[in-house]
Amino acid sequence: xxxxxxxxxxxxxxxxxxxxxxxxxxxxxxxxxxxxxxxxxxxxxxxxxxxxxxxxxxxxxxxxxxxxxxxxxxxxxxxxxxxxxxxxxxxxxxxxxxxxxxxxxxxxxxxxxxxxxxxxxxxxxxxxxxxxxxxxxxxxxxxxxxxxxxxxxxxxxxxxxxxxxxxxxxxxxxxxxxxxxxxxxxxxxxxxxxxxxxxxxxxxxxxxxxxxxxxxxxxxxxxxxxxxxxxxxxxxxxxxxxxxxxxxxxxxxxxxxxxxxxxxxxxxxxxxxxxxxxxxxxxxxxxxxxxxxxxxxxxxxxxxxxxxxxxxxxxxxxxxxxxxxxxxxxxxxxxxxxxxxxxxxxxxxxxxx
Length: 353
Hints:
The protein has 353 residues and is α+β, with helices and mostly antiparallel strands. The chain has eleven helices and eleven strands.
């Protein structure tokens, strides 16, 4: 909206201003705000990602050098850059992210980026702590998770709710104590309308808002157990169809069919993200040759997979899967990865069975 507003002001005031110079920031904003990559958003992000390669903005030049990338895709923004920028607002003040993006030179960018990395590290640690404590509050006999803590950081409760919903395959609400009330966020699962569930209970909520997939809320401590019981009852009225997770799998893709030509075809439909998800494929009876836990909190799974005579590196982010068998079925998508100036095809694993 800000970009369009400035563009209209430029037109009305007849100002000589090249709007292309803001496309790099605009693409970050669209992706980080999880806007649907359709219609005009898709066009703007495509243009913004192209502008990333030539932008003279000090912060963008710094990211190109630091991340050792000449070109960026929507996954780079969504999974690498956006979390670092968002950590400022989650753990401190969003002003820090703004200061970084508008930094005047490489040195200032490096100083501010280091502070952002520190905040992101704190965010990861706090997220892990809250998740580990919140998951213990899951009850198998309740169709909705309502987890509440006394000292959980408000900036990570939404992320934790999303992880709980993904882990336990049901809606999750994570709340933290704030003075005399509890406040936090909820995330839905599959096609369940979380907003409607909360709306049925608005008489015991101080505030709530959001949409079908996510919501924010606050309520008095005395109403917490009432909300848990009501949601546990209300969720029973949700249809079986709404519990079915839409995998949207295109079909079976054996390893023998994965090559650079396939990735070139898939790139024609980029950028991928909200509203335009990466095509998902399934492969059966895949051998796990090796694996190790990686990441700051050892919560990602790096693997070498084999099907017949084809080997691929693979990554499963935020993995809770226990590898107790040698052959598995996977839902995945192939993508280009770079390491030390070398490009190779890596499989991004979405589900393991």
